[in-house]
Write a structure and sequence with these properties.
Length: 535
């Protein structure tokens, strides 16, 4: 939103030049400039206004042909991509064998509850939350965008109930040490002032032309009205504060007194405008859902449909692709075992496949090495009271310039006695490198100290906590694949013989359940085609 408004200011100058005959500008040029200035959020806003964004459609789930007798598929890793694929394959009559290296099923779709183990190298933990189904921590995926119709379709099919995940809450806080004297501020106050000052600046530079044609007097008047409404400007087109920021005093019994405005130069000191301010306006974050009771509800629902359950603690050590199938060697309970299948769907993280003996081609190995591991960390804190609700916060995210980056509030169970916060969601690689060197106890201590700046008295509500650094999780050593060369993901989606790499690691945008499921469906479609040709 901040970026879009900034784009409006700059583009108004461009349009003014166009009106004066100093330059010509087309819609295509305008959109190109908007994308450069304001990024995806600004571009999507302009495109939406022009009606140029199509609605997303659910990916077609392949209707697999009935399997020929004794056809077997081996699935390596028991993440959501393998589980969905196994469900579809079993329904078509295939025998499925799933090998999972860890002690649990679900991959990065991990919801931690009382007694659960976090198998982080050098930081093994046991979750000590109360044994209560409402007290859980989504350590991996926690949101499903409304555009991700495929995974949402599976939720309907599997009977997984969904609820709104509150991504944006103007009542939540921002806190940055170099802004507002380090004191916290409601997001709505920051946003109201930012919009007001930007609308005032834009009004002062209001163009008389728009794109290739002149604005009529009625259109110019409507544009002025729009800016007054957008920024809550006064009749003189000046911004002097807004009720949108909340009141300094007053209420039902007395007239409301507006809060003092925060100068624009002061607003710029809070890095909230870099990401947090427009975080919930991107197409993937603007309207999101979550399974009622935790993301693992999806995993549990798929498992209930499978005849052959995953084999746990089965560590793959060798993969050999042959002309008519795939041979795999794995270690289970200290013993080396072998298995063979007609096809293999492999969800082992690319960063670990280099340590597995294989007969992949040199080009395929190079592509695997070109998908570097991502770094993300989260920390869950059980609090004895939902003190944030006493502050008027129900769901959403508070943003801070400290290492913890975010405090995320539960989007359900409002009014319950206790709750679990996401006490840190660390996106920065640099901060993650510091975070991973802390013990579990040190992470909690640090997060509580930083949380005090956002919520005074924070430590006093703490009962227990658990943390996950995905780039140190055993048998994973990373999360969302990032930084690869263009075309790497699509090249890895292509099968190597009867071996398919699946998971969000072969998607053009990783980190989402939708990407994992689509990768599985892509592999199933090709597998089905091969079977049809061989029949």
């Amino acid at each position: 939103m901040f970026g879009t408004a900034l784009a409006c200011i700059m583009l108004s100058r461009v349009c003014s030049f166009a009106e004066k005959g100093l330059m010509m500008i087309t819609r295509r040029q305008l959109l190109s400039m908007t994308g450069t200035i304001s990024g995806a959020a600004g571009m999507s806003g302009i495109l939406a206004a022009l009606g140029a964004i199509p609605h997303s459609a659910q990916a077609q789930v392949p209707s697999l042909r009935a399997a020929r007798p004794r056809r077997k598929v081996l699935l390596l890793g028991a993440g959501i991509s393998s589980l969905i694929a196994a469900m579809e394959l079993e329904q078509a009559g295939y025998e499925c064998e799933i090998l999972e290296a860890t002690h649990r099923v679900g991959g990065r779709c991990m919801t931690l509850r009382s007694g659960d183990i976090v198998d982080e190298i050098g930081n093994r933990q046991v979750c000590n939350f109360d044994d209560d189904p409402t007290l859980y921590f989504n350590a991996g995926p926690s949101r499903i965008p409304h555009e991700h119709a495929t995974i949402l379709g599976y939720c309907r099919r599997l009977g997984v109930s969904l609820e709104t995940s509150v991504n944006l809450n103007p009542a939540a806080w921002i806190q940055f040490d170099g802004f507002n004297g380090g004191a916290r501020m409601r997001q709505k106050q920051y946003v109201a002032d930012a919009r007001g000052f930007l609308a005032e600046l834009t009004q002062k530079g209001l163009p008389d032309a728009w794109l290739d044609s002149e604005l009529g007097e009625e259109e110019r008047d409507l544009l002025r009205q729009f800016l007054r409404s957008y920024g809550d400007l006064g009749g003189d087109d000046r911004y002097r504060g807004s009720a949108r920021a909340g009141y300094a005093s007053g209420g039902l019994a007395a007239p409301g007194v507006l809060k003092d405005t925060i100068a624009l130069r002061e607003l710029l000191k809070a890095d909230f405008w870099r990401m947090g301010m427009h975080f919930a306006e991107s197409s993937l974050q603007s309207a999101v859902l979550q399974p009622v009771g935790g993301m693992d509800r999806i995993v549990t629902a798929v498992l209930a449909r499978l005849t052959n359950k995953p084999r746990l603690h089965a560590v793959v050590t060798a993969i050999n692709v042959t002309n008519d199938g795939v041979d795999v060697v794995y270690r289970e309970k200290g013993e080396q075992r072998r298995t063979r299948a007609d096809y293999c769907l492999n969800a082992i993280p690319a960063q670990l496949l280099g340590g597995v003996d294989n007969n992949f081609s040199p080009d395929y190995r190079r592509l695997l090495a070109g998908r570097p591991r991502g770094k993300l960390s989260r920390l869950g804190l059980q609090m004895r009271e939902r003190f944030w609700e006493a502050e008027g916060i129900y769901g959403g995210i508070s943003w801070t310039g400290q290492d913890i980056t975010q405090i995320m509030y539960p989007s359900g169970g409002f009014g319950s006695p206790k709750g679990v916060l996401v006490g840190a969601y660390i996106l920065s690689g640099e901060i993650n490198d510091r975070w991973v060197n802390l013990t579990a106890a040190q992470r909690i201590k640090s997060a509580l100290a930083q949380g005090e700046k956002v919520h005074p008295g924070y430590r006093g509500y703490f009962e227990s906590g658990v943390s996950v650094a995905w780039h140190r999780m055993n048998h994973m050593l990373g999360c969302t694949a990032t930084g690869s060369e263009p075309g790497t993901a699509s090249a890895l989606r292509a099968p190597f013989g009867r071996h398919y790499l699946i998971g969000d690691q072969v998607a053009n945008y990783g980190g989402w359940l939708e990407a994992s499921v689509l990768s599985a469906l892509n592999a199933l479609g090709d597998l089905d085609k091969k079977e049809a040709e061989a029949a």
